[in-house]
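With this grant's support, we have settled on a layout for protein records. One resulting record is reproduced below.
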Amino acid sequence: MSRRRITESYDNELLNIAKWPRANLNVMPEQDLETYKKRKKAVEMFIKGDSLKEIKIETGIDRKEINNFFKKCLYEDKFGIIYGFNALIPGKTIKQYNRKELPNSTSKKHYNQQTGAFALLLKTYPVLQELIDTLFFRNKNKSLIDPVMKKNRIHKRFIEKCRELGLKAPFDYPFNTKELARRSLYSYLQKLEEDKMSDASYRYNSENEHHDNINSHFNEQAPTHLKPYERVQFDGHKIDLSLSLTFETPSGDEITKVLDRIWLLVIMDVASRAVLGYHISLNKEYNSNDVLQCVKKSIEPWKPLNLTIPGLKYPPNGGLPSGLIKESMWALWDEFYYDNAKANLSIIVRDRVKRIINCRVNAGPIKSPTKRSLIERFFGLLEENGYHRLTNTTGSNPKDPRRNNPEKQALKIKMNINDLEELTDVLIADYNSTPNEGTSYSTPLEALQHRINKDPIIRKLQEEERDNIPFLCVEAKRKVKGSIEQGRRPYIQFENVRYTNELLLRSPGLIGKTLDLVINIDDVRFLTAYLPDGSELGKLVGSGYWGKTKHSLALRKEIFSLRNKKLIHFTTKDDPIKAFQQYLKEKAITHKRYRNKLNSLEKTLANEQEVTKNIPDTSEREEVNTSKLNNVSPIKINTKDTMPIVELENKKRLKRTLTF
């Protein structure tokens, strides 16, 4: 992978080396100090953008080593903190060594070659790790005779189990070591005690474990009184329903198939128990994009849906706070409480929540749903009062009597994603307008309004940021390509697609210059480009159908991946999104996960068509036409300066952002 792509895969905040942890040079041995300084210099030059050749000359470190050192600096420790320049200290272990095979020899020369052997042994025989953990944490097996088993007795039981598994002396590990892996076992037990302090405390005294939980940073007791929007809880729940999708096969037949179960993501205000926003994800497992969509919808003002299900209607005074309470519109919270799901812990989620919402993030303790009891209880109420009452419910478990062949029922009633969205919106509106025991039997909306009246100071998103909340935006750099000699007008290349606009086409002086790009990964038809001095160049539009049909960055990557594998084919005259849609229709006949993808794609296309209908047809939405180029002033570059100075013949045109 090129250096540019490596650095672009990380957030700019993460690449801010001024905030990286760094080593204490005063205590470092002289022989290591020089090596450390060279490595540090190489990484700094690499991030700055210096060529690999220059780095080699300056530090003597080659390309492969530079990439490795850069990646090691961004490794995170068990507390989620990057190592930074500490990773460059000679001899420092950053990542556990992964051994490929267990040592098997009677030769003495193998006694000192046991690195990673114990970890591989536990990985090869999981029953050994289970035995050690059970013996060490007495609460796992209360039938044990020793209340606190000593390490030497654990080692004895460990060796006995190894013999039972067929490991023989003197050839097999651990029998081919001097102390039968005693030191490795003791080191493992020490690490186990450090990593699981709560369980280790219970090993000695159950009251210690309780005391540890109370004093834990993540388990701090909630205050008796919370202000509105002081803390919110987030979680995802797989809805207990089977849904259907009706689509037309490539052969023209209309069929109805069952979808995979889908996710409901919710954000709830702790003080009032009010649901602030939600998002329905069609993915098999919800991802970081889904989390950010949920956050975005919790900030934007809510609007009731146009209900199409006969008899379904919103309750009086029911809805979401951002659509009913003036102070809740565009409101921001102070603490974001969520679980340890990988999507929630992703870099982009933590970065956007901290940078845009400007709030604390609290991942909470692992395997402790009671710390998010409010939102867990809400999901239970939503299922019992709503989804479980439908004939196509999957029930709370496989033996639930309400479960009556849900897939067959889904095909019978043909409940689709649009029906689910309407039903969910009404159910949440009903919950927010129903008296709640936790708020002294006032409704969550009433409780929120009451607390706002007592403490009306709530942070809000700035007005200038409301039209385009940058939750799903990433940054990149690309050089302007083109050739005056060959008659190729300026353009940039991003993810296999050319981008340009009228102003860039008329500015050959920009060829070879690097533009800063801001990309909305949810819609990559357009990229916002900025000149080297920070001036906005306007929106660049993708060539052909890539600039017409709305699609995400992930979707484009998937399409080109399929094209490279010869699974789909399209030319410049074909709409690649439509070609991908046809591919999904073929797969959806027999595979559930492709049905979810097809449903999500068709919903996006349908929403875009609806938006297009409501936009008047103006000249600003026409495609790039070379006949218009005479009316657009070119950008001139002052080549005498190291940093290009941008001038426009008509200054009024600098403020104009082209829209296609």
Q: What stands out?
A: The longest helix spans residues 592-613. The two ends are 33 Å apart (CA to CA). Confidence is low (pLDDT under 50) at residues 107-111, 206-224, 618-632, 637-660.
